Amino acid sequence: MDVVSPELNSLLPDEIMDTEAIAMEEDLPAEHLAPPPPQSEAEPAQVPMETEVPEIVSLCPASTSMQMTSTSTNAQCGTSTGTQLLLASSGFMAVTTTTPAKTTSPALTQSLPKISSVTLPANHQLIINKVASSPAGDGKPPGAAVLKPEGQKLLVAGLSKTGQPIMLALPHSWNKPATTQGTGDGKAQATQIKMVTAAGKPVIAVSSASQLMGSSTTLQAQQLKTLQITKKPPVSTAGPMITKLIITKALNSKASASVSPVVTGRVLTQSTPVTPPRTISIGEAISTVTQNASGNSKVAISPLKSPSKVLNLSNLTVVSVASQSPNSPQKSVTLPLNVALGQQILTVQQSAATSPAKAGTSQSTAQTAKPMQTVTVGSMGTSQFKTIIPLTTPPNVQQIQVPGSRFHYVRLVTATTGSGTAQTGASINTNPSIQPAKSVMMNAAVRMSVPIVSAQTVKQVVPKPLTSAAQVVTTSQTPQRLIMPATHLPQIQPNLTNLPPGTVLTPAHGSGNMGYAVLPAPYVTQIAQPTFVTLTSNSTFSTATPIQTQARLSLNGLSTSEANSRPRKPCNCTRSQCLKLYCDCFANGEFCNNCNCVNCFNNLDHESERLKAIKACLDRNPVAFKPKIGKGKQGESDRRHSKGCNCKKSGCLKNYCECYEAKIMCSSICKCMGCKNFEESPERKTLMHLADAAEVRVQQQTAAKTKLSSQISDLLTRTTPALTSGGGKLPYTFVTKEVAEATCDCLLEQAEQAELANQPQAVAERLMLEEFGRCLRRIISFAGKAKTDCPINC
DNA sequence: GAGTTTGAAACT
DNA sequence: CAGTTTCAAACTC
């Protein structure tokens, strides 16, 4: 049963609404769940390399019943008593470099050993090699881990409606069609997907570390629902890079309200260790109890791209979606979810209905009392912060910022007419004083998730209180926003998911559901530094405990500071109108700003042309806007060019070569001729040495100047002779013995630097003279300042 | 700064 | 897919 009508489905990008893929995925042979075959070594992966970058995110829900650690990283949560779950993600979900465990035999399923490792092969399945011990037998008492033994796959970690961390443990045959469930024996069901949640306090990755670590709740299997999203990479010829996303929604067994997670119009399975699992069909609502006002539905996402990076709890980025009303525990909630993860898209959609029993069908309507969908993404101290764009129209757009991902995501939702009145509570917001949000019914909505910006490095998710619908997460920086006027571009919409990473889509004010504004991501990131991104579906979102997610990622192999500090060079385009990839600005998804281009169309005034150009580029190359430098395969260099260079004359030792320019060596996929950009190349080494020497010189000179200047300033300050009240002394009177000595030190330093650099004497003399001039100017400056600033003391 | 070289992007 | 053209950056003088 499909929630989304075929018509709507047809409008959605395949990446999001590829419900067929789900069916296909169910029929996939087992090897599709295994890591990519070795053939990828010889065959350049067409999948953007960023998806190959494993990411490790640790979830540390408080629980004493289970511990999971990653053997590949030795990363552990900071508490010995808390449940530890390490999720490694490869562009989408957690991935580690360990070999995925084989499916266990039925006999193994009877035991519940401790989880020794969590692995996730390239197919984006998280595999738990061993599971925390728990009482044997079918009984899965509260506090006992229900994860299956070695080889079991944990696909997604998230939060239950009540804020409990959810771990989805899949049986080894999970890839089989799991549309029905057997009896109450919650274990070893061939088609059963198990969900493990931590009961008690809201224990979510999004929560602060203290919140998680401090919690003493036990891991408990609960009745739950699972959703499965099968998604294929947009472009992949490197093998069965099939990504599976299991969205889980834990339901308390005592639940009386309903929650009907709907992903891409299809609900796959439901299982519970406590009660007999049953199949969930589209639109079906399962009652559940809202435990408290702070209950929420959260989806933990680990889209970080950094390889081998282990993130503590505080580093986990979670996109949370409010799904609960504190005042209406009986309200049914439907949560279609699409949330973009890296290139993957996971849309989180939430709706609430007044009907306590059944709700959330595809015919649900939306009533938007608070026209806002905000996703705030935060990162610390970097320019990679995300910006929340206030929505002036009904919440038909959700910006989803996935920390660690190089993309910003915006979910475009075409909401139907509203009818629901149920209130939805903020996922993290527990502030009762906040105005309750109206229900958001978007079951039949058209959802689009669009990567909108390159996002990498540290992200800090700090939900900020929102007291009104019009509020959006603000940043600590200049609230400047550059938003293109939205226009109706239906001809482009089908490809919205392929928009360049620098494109942000936002609904246009008064332009209806199909209005879009294109906002280059870099501008967005400039707006918000740091940006605290919060995803919520209502206006009551707030939290007393900011959630911080920090990741140490890099963009194109550059550190965050490096990537951010480097000012983009202005382009000089004259013929391309800055609407072709010749233009670096355009290629980077940025507007031209302070460029020297002629007849530039890469600006706000030429939105339509720009969109068309983007579409054209994407038509030619769907990954045209992906970073060219990405993570190489295992065993290869950390960074490599995704396509390889084609140099013929430069020997790949000039900046003509994109590999050399990126300071990486050419790889096997390069088609260059006479390449000298390889590890043992003497030419390359020579160049590197020269470059290093030059850099060292610069650094030394800078440091020396800084130090000596500081000394001079200090001396001038301390030894400033008293000035007469009649105008003070002349500057030369400030040349005390100390000042003269410091000046000589400066000159000698210059001489030494020149000597170290093997500079000729003339150059050394010149440097010394220049330094002397600077010293004199500084002395004079201080003298003048002393006269001005010290009229009393001098 | 003008002219040349270079290789990616675009085009055929 | 290969060859050619266009383009803008890198480079040289």
Automatic annotation (TrEMBL):
Localization terms from the record: Nucleus
Pfam families in UniProt: TCR (PF03638)
Listed PROSITE patterns: CRC (PS51634)
GO cellular component terms, A-Z: nucleus
Residues covered by region (Disordered): 30-49
Domain of life from the UniProt record: Eukaryota
Keywords from the named record: Nucleus
GO BP term, pick one: regulation of DNA-templated transcription
Chain ranges of the CRC domain: 567-680
Main location: nucleus
InterPro entries cross-referenced by the UniProt entry: CRC, Lin-54_fam, Tesmin/TSO1-like_CXC
Family: Belongs to the lin-54 family.
Name by which UniProt lists this protein: CRC domain-containing protein
Record organism: Phoxinus phoxinus (Eurasian minnow)
Origin organism lineage: Eukaryota, Metazoa, Chordata, Craniata, Vertebrata
